[in-house]
Each structure stands twice: as C-alpha cells, then as structure tokens.
UniProtKB/TrEMBL annotation, chain A:
One of its GO terms (cellular component) is plasma membrane. Residues 8-222 form the Cytochrome b561 bacterial/Ni-hydrogenase domain. InterPro entries: Cyt_b561_bac/Ni-Hgenase, Di-haem_cyt_TM, Hydrogenase_cytochrome, Ni-dep_Hydgase_cyt-B. Belongs to the HupC/HyaC/HydC family. Keywords: Cell membrane, Electron transport, Heme, Iron, Membrane, Metal-binding, Transmembrane, Transmembrane helix, Transport. One of its GO terms (biological process) is respiratory electron transport chain. This is DUF4405 domain-containing protein. It is found in: Cell membrane. It comes from Aurantiacibacter rhizosphaerae. The chain crosses the membrane at residues 15-34, 78-99, 146-168, 188-209.
TrEMBL record, chain B:
Gene3D superfamilies: Oxidoreductase, molybdopterin-binding domain. PANTHER family: BLL0505 PROTEIN (PTHR43032:SF2), PROTEIN-METHIONINE-SULFOXIDE REDUCTASE (PTHR43032). It comes from Aurantiacibacter rhizosphaerae. InterPro entries: OxRdtase_Mopterin-bd_dom, OxRdtase_Mopterin-bd_sf. The lineage of its organism: Bacteria, Pseudomonadati, Pseudomonadota, Alphaproteobacteria, Sphingomonadales. This is Molybdopterin-dependent oxidoreductase. Residues 87-221 form the Oxidoreductase molybdopterin-binding domain.
Amino acid sequence: MGTMPRKRHALPTRIWHWVNALALIILFMSGLNISNGHRRLYWGDQGFAPAQAWLEVPRFPGWATIPDYYSLAAARDWHVLFSLVLGFSLLAFMIFAFANGHMKRDIFARAREWKPSNIWRDIREHLRFNFDHGAGKYNILQKISYASVILILIPLMIFTGMVMSPGMEAAWPWMTEIFGGRQSARSLHFLAAWGLFAFFVVHILLVIASGPIRQIRDMITGGKMEGNDDAAA
Amino acid sequence: MQRRNFLVAAGAAFLAGCSDIGKTEWFGKLVDGAQDWHRGLHRALGGGRITMAPEYTIADLSPFFRGNGSQTVDTPAYRAAEAQGFADWRLAISGLVENPGELSMDDIRALPQRTQITRHDCVEGWSAIGEWTGPQLSRILDAAVVKPEANFIVFHCADNLNGSQYYESCDMDDAFHPQTIIAHELNGEALPVRNGAPLRLRIERQLGYKHAKYLTGIEAVASLDDFGKGYGGYWEDRGYQWYAGI
C-alpha cells in the first residue's frame, strides 16, 4: 500500500460513513412525517381504503419527525433533497470500496467464515462482549450486517423510492414490476426503513459497548491499523 | 442521567435546527435544485425517448375511484351547470396562442379521443387505477397554435379550496406529452362530480395534485409569476414541489 501508513478506516469510508449517517437520519425522520400523510400500507399497484390495507401505521409524534410538526410539503423537501445525497454517496462509496479492495477484503466473507461453528462461536463471543476476535478486520456477524445494509437495505430504499416517483417510473417501468407494483414498493420502503433503524440501534449499542471514544475517533481520523502500532510514526 | 439529558437536548436542538433550516431561503433554493436534478435524471434515464406512465387493463380498475381535495364546486353557476348535465360548459383557450377561443363539450368530444387506464398517485401516498377518456392536450394546443414565447400552460379551475381558487401549470414537455389529456370520462361514463366534472387534466407522469379538476380554461403563458402566489399551482403556493414527478 505504498509509503502511507495503513489507516483503520480509509478516507472514502469515513466520509461516506458520516454523510450516509446524516442522510439516513434525515430521510428516516422526514419519512415518518410523510408516513403520517397516509397511514395505511398495501400490496400490489393500488390501494386507498382501509379494507385494502395490510397494515395501519401509527401516527408518528412530532419529536420523531422532520420538521417537528406535520407538514407533508416540508418533509418532502427534506426527503427529495437527501434522497440524492443517499443515492450518489452510496454510488461513490461502492466505486471506492470495490476499487480499493475494502469490499472484497473486509466486507465479503470467506467460505470458512460461513461454517455454522464459526457463526456460533461469533455469537457466543458477542454475548460475552468480546468484540476483538476473528482473523480479519470484521467478524462474520459484522460482515453479515454491514453487507446487508450496504448491498441490500440501502439499495432497496433507493430503488423502491425511485419506483414511487411517477416521473422516474415512466423512465424505468420494469422496476415497478420487479417490486410487484407501486404500493408494494411503498410497503417495502417502509419495512426496509425499519430494518435500517434496527441496524442503527444495534450499531450504536455495540459502539458504546466496544469503546465508543476510540470507535468514533477512528471513524473521524482514520485511526491506526490494529496490530501495527509503529506504522503511524 | 446527565448523559441522557444531554442526548435529549441534542436531539431537540437537531430537530429545531432542521425545522428552522427548512424555512430559510437558501434551503428552498437547494430543494429547487434537487427538484431539477430529479427531473433531469427522470428524463436522462428514459434514454431520450418519450417516457410513458404504465397503462393497465380493465381487470386492474379500482372498484371505486375516490375523490380528494375539492369534491364539488360550491357556486350557483356550477350547481346550475350540473343540473343541465354540463351541456353549456366551456373551456376557454387563451394567452400566448394565435387562435384564442372557447371549446364546447361537443367540440371536445368531436376531437380524436385517447382512452388510457392509468394509476393516480396522490402525494399523500395512496394509489387508484381508472380509465380516462378525452382529447390529447397537444391536439387542442396545436389547433390554437402556441406562440414561441410561451413556456408554460396554466390550467384554470372552477373550484375554490379553503378560500383560494385552484389552478395548476405544467411545462411544454408535459403539455405536449401523449398521455396528457383533457378527460371528460372516467371508466366509460361522464366524469363524476367528485372527480372533477365535467373536465379534468390527466398528466400521468406527475402526482395527483397536478391533475386539475373542474377545468374552465387553459392559458399559454411566458411566466407563472402573475398567478396565485407565483409558484405555479394551488399546492405549489402552499410549499409543494412544482415538478410533482418525484
């Protein structure tokens, strides 16, 4: 890797992490405001009546939404703006992460890591609050959760969001069919948002449990590569 | 306990900050830019072709097509027109056109018709599928001959919502789009009052509030400044995006 000391987190990873975190928080909270505009979810192409709905969504309170009062127009402004930030920053991160080997080296799991004995051992270590185990940078549970967020949940949010834009749908109508109709895409958008929320909660708890000062500092400065203490000189 | 209080305070400050930022002029400009980016992407990803909203079959029709916003027009003139089956309703063609004038309902029915089964998406989130029939707006505009200095079409409406006259507007790209029609039928019957009788706009690549109901006139204009608060529509004047394709 040249003459530069290896950082724990590469610069593109750090920039994307914080931009993505801000975008996800704003999109989630403005999304809850938008959800208040019509609090029912449907499957298929259409739906507006209670009898067609598979879920009655609760009304989200002002302290959980952006802005902090009900405004579909203002919430859509935030959503429309930060959807572009989310989409283009993920695209840029993907390009860097595949190009600099981060994806292959750190995120994708090797075949031996998928052994049930390894996954089981990893679960036991997590329950003991021991997070420094496993050969690579990340253990198998981390790899599964990071890959799920980067490769499944966030792309799912982006593509179901695109399906819900009628102008976008006219350009790529096949995408609506992949998701089984606009209202199905809307339901999946809602479910994936809560999937990301669940990741967010677990992620924060594990950062707190594993030395939050060091974790946050390293995600800002890059930190030092573990087991390579004299490289930073 | 102190840490918890700090987190609650930080969260509240973030929320209040967002609400304040949302009201600033620069944030509005940023959102306008984002709106243009979305619109540009929608057109670019269409690969240069005329992008078309999906069309459905009779089997997909919603059992009941709800009305939203104005459900009727509360004026004596509209009541009288409704009692006569809208026989004397007129659609005024005005503004930057060579041949201004009026179209009667018979004129509109005599034009070549387009029938399309499309999905109506409300900005609130719900969707309904209906079969709409009417002449393409492009036919009407071609007959009127739009002057080159016209940039937008403004749609004038009979309905008054919360004390303000409803109106809408679109650019020439959507005005001349093949699926943009002046509908006078829903599901093979005269347009019901709740859905905008006797005439409503269908502008299929945009959200429901663009589909102006109770149409009384279409006007070709160079600028939207002189209508309502100048944002190009009733809901646009209340903060909603003018490009409702997002």
